[in-house]
Amino acid sequence: MQFAEIVGQKKIKRQLAAMADEGRVSHAILFCEEPGYGALPLAIAFAQYMSCPSKEGGDSCGTCPTCNKFRKLIHPDLHFAMPVSSTKTITADKKPVSDLFASEWREIIGENCYLTEQEWYEFIGIENKSGIIGVNEAALISRKLSLRSFEGGNKFMIIWLPERMNQEAANKLLKLLEEPPPETFIFLVSEAPERVISTIVSRCQIFKLTPAETEELAAELTEEYDITPDEARFWAGISGGSLSRSRALISESGKESEFYQPLAVLLEGCATKDLKKIVQFWEEISTLGREKQRTFCEYALEFLRRTLITQAGTPEVSNTPPAQREFIKYWAGRLKPAFLVKGYDVLNKALADIDRNVNSKYIFADLGNRFFLSL
Ligand SMILES: [Zn+2]
To answer: How far is the CA of 212 from the centre of ligand 1 (A)?
Structure first.
């Protein structure tokens, strides 16, 4: 991982490189961020920078054997600890620690180093509970860092989400943070520094990452997705400068475009009093799975909200994606506010019925009829 692969964060990258060049890197650093600012890849890139023998221009070379080992996360002096929990295969009696998830960790970081906590839990199959960094993990961290460096250089321990560390584990690590063995660096990467145990925080130098600038993030998004620069700027702008949030929003909008058509059919049917269109609408929707039906209702609710805001004369705060603006503008000119309020109730009722496993045809025929009578 090179600094160049991380979106934005120019100032911190410069500071880190300068600290490394001048040999004054603290032995314990806490990187704080909002999810999606890139603190985890930044910590990895920093360790790589400190280890690369051919660094230049404020970044590691990216091609030497050391950089290659860092890129694959197989450098023997690069260690990770992250929250884990028992799974179907790694049961509680095996005392789950990060090492038991090493191959999963390498795999997912290889795909997406802007990993969110939830994505990690889903990937290892513990999505219904939170992971922890417990005392067994702390013992393992101490043991690994007491070993000599394998390649004769610095040793690194990156602790991802130290807010998941319990008191017992924190107590065990305090001494290590205070007086780490020589040439040992501990980087903590937190999304909730206010929840990290204070005795840990007080022993670290703190770096706070800032949101990526809209233009920088938009450039990354246009590379990743088939979207126009205008759309990319829109998503970057409403994501609050977070790459993972932008990605989630773009993926949700992909779902939206799937539901644009049935909603348009329903509204046209209501506006032109064309019952055939209403029947076409509910027949199509009722063949979808429950999850998709839920998403349709959520999309339609979002449509009503955006339409109301547009009618109020403030479309710029409706956060409507560029591709949907014409659609919203058109219906904002045609739908009465009273209908929008009524539609809101009808859709919420449909959502409740979906949860109660009511027959889909009944739910959407009822929804179509209510829309028809209200418009
Ligand atoms: Zn290198």
So the answer is: 26
CA of 70 from ligand 1 middle (Å) equals 9
Q: Are 4 and 40 in contact (CB under 8 A)?
A: no
Nearest to 105 by CA among 138, 83, 128, 77: 83
In degrees and rounded to multiples of 5, residue 35 shows phi and psi of: -50, 135
Q: Rounded to an integer, what distance in angstroms lies between the CA atom of residue 230 and that of residue 340? A: 29
pLDDT of residue 317: 82
List, for residues 301-324, the tens digit of each pLDDT value. 989 999 999 999 988 888 888 888
CA of 77 to the centre of ligand 1 (A): 15
Q: Is 78 helix (H, G, I), strand (E, B) or coil?
A: strand
What pTM was computed for the model? Answer: 0.82
Interval between CA 53 and ligand 1 midpoint (Å): 6
Query: What is the Å distance from ligand 1's center to 55 Cα?
Result: 6
Give residue 52 CA to ligand 1 midpoint distance, Å.
4
Beta strand spans in the chain (E): 28-32, 78-81, 155-160, 184-190, 205-208
Q: Where are the beta strands (DSSP E) in 203-327?
A: 205-208
pLDDT digits (tens, 9 = 90+) for 96-114: 999 999 999 999 999 999 9
Q: How far is the CA of 66 from the centre of ligand 1 (A)?
A: 6
Q: Could you give all domains of the chain from N- to C-terminal order, each with its CATH number?
A: 3-210 (3.40.50.300), 255-374 (1.20.272)
Question: What proportion of the chain, given as a percentage, has pLDDT over 70?
Answer: 100
Q: How far is the CA of 5 from the centre of ligand 1 (A)?
A: 14
332-to-15, 36, 231, 305, 310 alpha-carbon distances in Å: 50, 34, 21, 10, 6
